[in-house]
Specification:
The chain is α/β, with parallel strands linked by helices. The chain has helices at 3-15, 18-25, 29-43, 57-82, 102-114, 127-135, 208-215, 231-239, 249-252, 282-298; strands spanning 48-49, 54-55, 90-95, 119-124, 141-148, 162-170, 172-177, 188-189, 198-200, 222-225, 245-248, 258-265, 269-277.
Protein backbone atom coordinates (compact mmCIF):
# COMPACT_ATOMS: atom_id res chain seq x y z
CA UNK A 1 0.00 0.00 0.00
CA UNK A 2 1.50 3.33 -1.08
CA UNK A 3 1.71 5.66 1.96
CA UNK A 4 1.23 8.72 -0.24
CA UNK A 5 -2.12 7.35 -1.37
CA UNK A 6 -3.04 6.50 2.20
CA UNK A 7 -2.18 10.02 3.36
CA UNK A 8 -4.39 11.45 0.61
CA UNK A 9 -7.21 9.12 1.66
CA UNK A 10 -7.02 10.35 5.27
CA UNK A 11 -6.95 14.00 4.13
CA UNK A 12 -10.03 13.55 1.95
CA UNK A 13 -12.03 12.12 4.84
CA UNK A 14 -10.64 14.62 7.35
CA UNK A 15 -11.81 17.49 5.13
CA UNK A 16 -14.86 15.65 3.75
CA UNK A 17 -13.80 17.25 0.48
CA UNK A 18 -11.52 16.44 -2.45
CA UNK A 19 -10.76 20.12 -3.00
CA UNK A 20 -10.04 20.66 0.70
CA UNK A 21 -7.66 17.71 0.73
CA UNK A 22 -5.95 19.02 -2.39
CA UNK A 23 -5.41 22.43 -0.80
CA UNK A 24 -4.01 20.95 2.41
CA UNK A 25 -1.63 18.58 0.61
CA UNK A 26 -0.55 20.93 -2.16
CA UNK A 27 -1.98 18.74 -4.92
CA UNK A 28 -4.46 19.43 -7.68
CA UNK A 29 -7.97 18.11 -7.17
CA UNK A 30 -7.42 15.84 -10.16
CA UNK A 31 -4.33 14.34 -8.49
CA UNK A 32 -6.32 13.67 -5.31
CA UNK A 33 -9.01 11.89 -7.31
CA UNK A 34 -6.34 9.79 -9.03
CA UNK A 35 -4.80 8.89 -5.66
CA UNK A 36 -8.12 7.68 -4.30
CA UNK A 37 -8.87 5.71 -7.45
CA UNK A 38 -5.42 4.08 -7.32
CA UNK A 39 -5.84 3.12 -3.65
CA UNK A 40 -9.28 1.66 -4.36
CA UNK A 41 -7.85 -0.35 -7.27
CA UNK A 42 -5.00 -1.60 -5.06
CA UNK A 43 -7.35 -2.76 -2.30
CA UNK A 44 -10.09 -3.95 -4.65
CA UNK A 45 -12.81 -2.02 -2.84
CA UNK A 46 -14.56 1.31 -3.06
CA UNK A 47 -13.37 3.41 -0.11
CA UNK A 48 -14.94 6.85 -0.52
CA UNK A 49 -18.43 7.92 -1.51
CA UNK A 50 -18.18 10.99 -3.71
CA UNK A 51 -21.48 12.82 -3.15
CA UNK A 52 -21.37 13.62 -0.32
CA UNK A 53 -17.80 12.69 0.56
CA UNK A 54 -17.91 9.97 3.21
CA UNK A 55 -16.22 6.64 3.91
CA UNK A 56 -17.79 3.44 2.66
CA UNK A 57 -17.82 0.52 5.15
CA UNK A 58 -14.45 -0.56 3.72
CA UNK A 59 -13.17 3.00 3.93
CA UNK A 60 -14.26 3.29 7.54
CA UNK A 61 -12.36 0.10 8.35
CA UNK A 62 -9.23 1.39 6.60
CA UNK A 63 -9.56 4.70 8.44
CA UNK A 64 -9.27 2.81 11.73
CA UNK A 65 -5.80 1.61 10.71
CA UNK A 66 -4.50 4.55 8.68
CA UNK A 67 -3.40 7.00 11.43
CA UNK A 68 -1.36 4.33 13.22
CA UNK A 69 0.23 3.17 9.96
CA UNK A 70 1.21 6.69 8.95
CA UNK A 71 2.51 7.42 12.45
CA UNK A 72 4.78 4.37 12.33
CA UNK A 73 6.09 5.39 8.92
CA UNK A 74 6.88 8.87 10.23
CA UNK A 75 8.56 7.28 13.24
CA UNK A 76 10.81 5.14 11.05
CA UNK A 77 11.80 8.13 8.92
CA UNK A 78 12.54 10.29 11.96
CA UNK A 79 14.43 7.50 13.74
CA UNK A 80 16.83 7.12 10.82
CA UNK A 81 17.20 10.90 10.43
CA UNK A 82 18.16 11.27 14.09
CA UNK A 83 21.21 9.06 13.51
CA UNK A 84 22.69 11.81 11.35
CA UNK A 85 21.25 14.96 12.95
CA UNK A 86 22.77 15.46 16.38
CA UNK A 87 21.67 18.83 17.85
CA UNK A 88 23.35 18.92 21.27
CA UNK A 89 22.67 22.64 21.78
CA UNK A 90 19.00 22.67 20.79
CA UNK A 91 15.94 21.22 22.53
CA UNK A 92 12.42 21.26 21.14
CA UNK A 93 9.81 20.31 23.72
CA UNK A 94 6.16 19.69 22.83
CA UNK A 95 3.52 19.64 25.55
CA UNK A 96 -0.23 19.47 25.93
CA UNK A 97 -1.49 22.54 27.82
CA UNK A 98 -2.26 20.93 31.18
CA UNK A 99 0.99 18.94 31.14
CA UNK A 100 3.10 22.09 31.04
CA UNK A 101 3.02 22.68 34.78
CA UNK A 102 5.47 23.15 37.66
CA UNK A 103 7.09 19.71 37.30
CA UNK A 104 8.12 20.28 33.69
CA UNK A 105 9.01 23.95 34.15
CA UNK A 106 11.27 23.32 37.17
CA UNK A 107 13.06 20.41 35.54
CA UNK A 108 13.66 22.56 32.43
CA UNK A 109 15.05 25.35 34.62
CA UNK A 110 17.39 22.87 36.30
CA UNK A 111 18.59 21.64 32.91
CA UNK A 112 19.27 25.16 31.67
CA UNK A 113 21.23 25.96 34.82
CA UNK A 114 23.77 23.35 33.73
CA UNK A 115 23.54 23.99 29.97
CA UNK A 116 23.69 27.76 29.53
CA UNK A 117 24.07 27.64 25.73
CA UNK A 118 21.04 25.42 25.24
CA UNK A 119 18.51 26.83 22.77
CA UNK A 120 15.04 25.78 23.96
CA UNK A 121 11.75 25.90 22.07
CA UNK A 122 8.48 24.96 23.82
CA UNK A 123 5.42 24.13 21.72
CA UNK A 124 1.97 23.86 23.30
CA UNK A 125 -0.14 21.51 21.22
CA UNK A 126 -3.05 19.11 21.46
CA UNK A 127 -2.24 15.64 22.79
CA UNK A 128 -2.29 13.90 19.41
CA UNK A 129 -0.13 16.63 17.88
CA UNK A 130 2.42 16.26 20.69
CA UNK A 131 2.78 12.54 20.00
CA UNK A 132 2.91 13.14 16.26
CA UNK A 133 5.69 15.73 16.66
CA UNK A 134 7.78 13.43 18.84
CA UNK A 135 7.32 10.39 16.62
CA UNK A 136 7.85 12.46 13.47
CA UNK A 137 11.08 14.02 14.77
CA UNK A 138 9.74 17.58 14.97
CA UNK A 139 10.14 17.59 18.76
CA UNK A 140 12.90 16.00 20.84
CA UNK A 141 10.49 14.95 23.58
CA UNK A 142 6.90 15.54 24.59
CA UNK A 143 4.63 15.70 27.61
CA UNK A 144 1.03 14.52 27.49
CA UNK A 145 -1.58 14.33 30.22
CA UNK A 146 -4.82 12.61 31.09
CA UNK A 147 -6.89 10.93 33.78
CA UNK A 148 -5.88 7.52 35.10
CA UNK A 149 -6.00 5.39 38.23
CA UNK A 150 -3.00 6.04 40.50
CA UNK A 151 0.20 4.54 39.02
CA UNK A 152 -1.63 3.37 35.88
CA UNK A 153 -0.16 4.46 32.53
CA UNK A 154 -2.16 6.61 30.15
CA UNK A 155 -3.75 4.86 27.15
CA UNK A 156 -1.47 5.48 24.18
CA UNK A 157 -1.50 4.54 20.50
CA UNK A 158 1.29 2.40 19.08
CA UNK A 159 4.18 4.88 18.89
CA UNK A 160 6.88 2.54 17.67
CA UNK A 161 10.38 2.76 19.18
CA UNK A 162 9.75 5.30 21.93
CA UNK A 163 10.19 5.48 25.69
CA UNK A 164 7.41 6.64 28.01
CA UNK A 165 8.05 7.74 31.60
CA UNK A 166 5.76 8.91 34.40
CA UNK A 167 6.46 12.60 35.03
CA UNK A 168 3.89 13.49 37.70
CA UNK A 169 0.56 12.58 39.26
CA UNK A 170 -1.66 15.37 40.55
CA UNK A 171 -5.11 15.81 42.04
CA UNK A 172 -7.86 15.92 39.42
CA UNK A 173 -10.44 18.69 39.81
CA UNK A 174 -13.69 19.83 38.19
CA UNK A 175 -14.14 23.47 37.13
CA UNK A 176 -17.36 25.10 38.36
CA UNK A 177 -18.59 28.69 37.98
CA UNK A 178 -18.19 30.55 41.28
CA UNK A 179 -21.96 30.68 41.82
CA UNK A 180 -22.57 26.98 41.17
CA UNK A 181 -24.22 25.06 44.05
CA UNK A 182 -21.26 22.66 44.15
CA UNK A 183 -18.54 25.30 43.94
CA UNK A 184 -18.04 25.30 47.70
CA UNK A 185 -17.77 21.52 48.10
CA UNK A 186 -14.56 20.00 49.44
CA UNK A 187 -14.81 17.22 46.83
CA UNK A 188 -17.18 15.82 44.20
CA UNK A 189 -17.89 12.42 42.67
CA UNK A 190 -17.60 12.38 38.90
CA UNK A 191 -20.44 9.90 38.53
CA UNK A 192 -22.79 12.43 40.18
CA UNK A 193 -21.95 14.86 37.37
CA UNK A 194 -22.42 12.50 34.41
CA UNK A 195 -25.69 14.20 33.37
CA UNK A 196 -24.41 17.76 33.88
CA UNK A 197 -23.51 20.10 31.03
CA UNK A 198 -19.87 19.65 30.01
CA UNK A 199 -17.41 21.47 27.78
CA UNK A 200 -15.90 19.22 25.12
CA UNK A 201 -12.25 20.39 25.12
CA UNK A 202 -10.17 17.36 24.10
CA UNK A 203 -6.90 19.27 23.71
CA UNK A 204 -7.06 21.11 27.05
CA UNK A 205 -9.29 19.34 29.59
CA UNK A 206 -9.65 15.61 30.20
CA UNK A 207 -11.49 14.33 27.09
CA UNK A 208 -15.13 13.47 27.72
CA UNK A 209 -14.80 10.03 26.17
CA UNK A 210 -12.12 9.31 28.77
CA UNK A 211 -14.50 10.35 31.56
CA UNK A 212 -17.18 8.07 30.10
CA UNK A 213 -14.70 5.19 30.06
CA UNK A 214 -13.40 5.55 33.60
CA UNK A 215 -16.90 6.17 35.02
CA UNK A 216 -18.49 3.43 32.89
CA UNK A 217 -21.36 5.59 31.77
CA UNK A 218 -22.65 7.09 28.54
CA UNK A 219 -23.02 10.51 30.17
CA UNK A 220 -20.65 13.50 30.06
CA UNK A 221 -22.27 14.84 26.91
CA UNK A 222 -20.98 18.15 25.52
CA UNK A 223 -23.00 21.34 25.88
CA UNK A 224 -20.41 23.34 23.95
CA UNK A 225 -17.23 22.47 22.06
CA UNK A 226 -13.87 24.16 22.65
CA UNK A 227 -11.12 23.57 20.12
CA UNK A 228 -7.55 24.69 20.69
CA UNK A 229 -5.06 24.88 23.56
CA UNK A 230 -6.16 28.04 25.40
CA UNK A 231 -6.70 27.19 29.07
CA UNK A 232 -7.88 30.70 29.93
CA UNK A 233 -10.47 30.57 27.16
CA UNK A 234 -11.70 27.26 28.55
CA UNK A 235 -11.89 28.77 32.04
CA UNK A 236 -13.86 31.75 30.70
CA UNK A 237 -16.44 29.38 29.21
CA UNK A 238 -16.71 27.46 32.48
CA UNK A 239 -16.95 30.67 34.51
CA UNK A 240 -19.83 31.88 32.31
CA UNK A 241 -21.78 28.68 32.90
CA UNK A 242 -21.26 26.99 29.54
CA UNK A 243 -20.34 23.69 31.18
CA UNK A 244 -17.94 21.81 33.42
CA UNK A 245 -14.41 20.63 32.66
CA UNK A 246 -11.82 18.44 34.40
CA UNK A 247 -8.26 19.71 34.87
CA UNK A 248 -5.36 19.13 37.26
CA UNK A 249 -5.88 21.02 40.52
CA UNK A 250 -2.55 22.96 40.36
CA UNK A 251 -3.55 24.36 36.95
CA UNK A 252 -7.24 24.87 37.71
CA UNK A 253 -6.63 26.62 41.04
CA UNK A 254 -4.98 29.63 39.39
CA UNK A 255 -7.55 30.12 36.62
CA UNK A 256 -9.82 33.16 37.12
CA UNK A 257 -13.57 33.10 37.70
CA UNK A 258 -13.93 29.42 38.58
CA UNK A 259 -13.90 27.13 41.61
CA UNK A 260 -11.70 24.04 41.29
CA UNK A 261 -13.17 21.17 43.33
CA UNK A 262 -11.13 17.95 43.73
CA UNK A 263 -12.53 14.64 42.49
CA UNK A 264 -13.02 12.06 45.25
CA UNK A 265 -14.56 9.20 43.24
CA UNK A 266 -13.71 7.29 41.20
CA UNK A 267 -10.12 7.17 42.45
CA UNK A 268 -8.36 9.06 39.67
CA UNK A 269 -5.33 11.27 39.28
CA UNK A 270 -4.20 13.68 36.63
CA UNK A 271 -1.15 11.94 35.16
CA UNK A 272 1.62 13.51 33.08
CA UNK A 273 3.85 11.32 30.96
CA UNK A 274 7.05 12.07 29.09
CA UNK A 275 7.59 10.51 25.66
CA UNK A 276 10.86 10.51 23.76
CA UNK A 277 12.53 8.40 21.02
CA UNK A 278 14.63 5.44 22.12
CA UNK A 279 17.69 7.31 20.86
CA UNK A 280 17.04 10.85 22.18
CA UNK A 281 19.35 13.81 21.82
CA UNK A 282 21.63 14.54 24.77
CA UNK A 283 19.53 17.47 26.11
CA UNK A 284 16.34 15.39 25.82
CA UNK A 285 17.96 12.53 27.72
CA UNK A 286 19.16 14.92 30.42
CA UNK A 287 15.70 16.40 30.87
CA UNK A 288 14.14 12.94 30.95
CA UNK A 289 16.62 11.91 33.67
CA UNK A 290 15.74 14.99 35.72
CA UNK A 291 12.01 14.28 35.36
CA UNK A 292 12.49 10.62 36.29
CA UNK A 293 14.51 11.64 39.34
CA UNK A 294 11.79 14.04 40.50
CA UNK A 295 9.06 11.45 39.93
CA UNK A 296 11.05 8.87 41.91
CA UNK A 297 11.60 11.28 44.79
CA UNK A 298 7.86 12.08 44.94
CA UNK A 299 6.80 8.41 44.84
Amino acid sequence: MDPHLLRTFVAVLDHRSFSGAAASLGYTQSAVSQHIAALEADLGSRLVERRPVAPTPAGARLLEHAPALLLRLDAARADIARLHQARPTHLTLASSPAALGPTVARALAELRATAHALDVEVRVLGREAVLSDVVGGRADLGFVDGAAAPSDPLPMPDLGPTTTLAAAEETLAVLFPLGHPLAGRRAVRLTDLAQAQWIDAPDTAVPLDRLRTVCRTDGFRPWIRHRGTDLHGLAALAAAGHGLAALPLPVAAVLPGIAAVPVSEPRLVHRIELVHPVNPTAPARQLADLIAGRAGADA
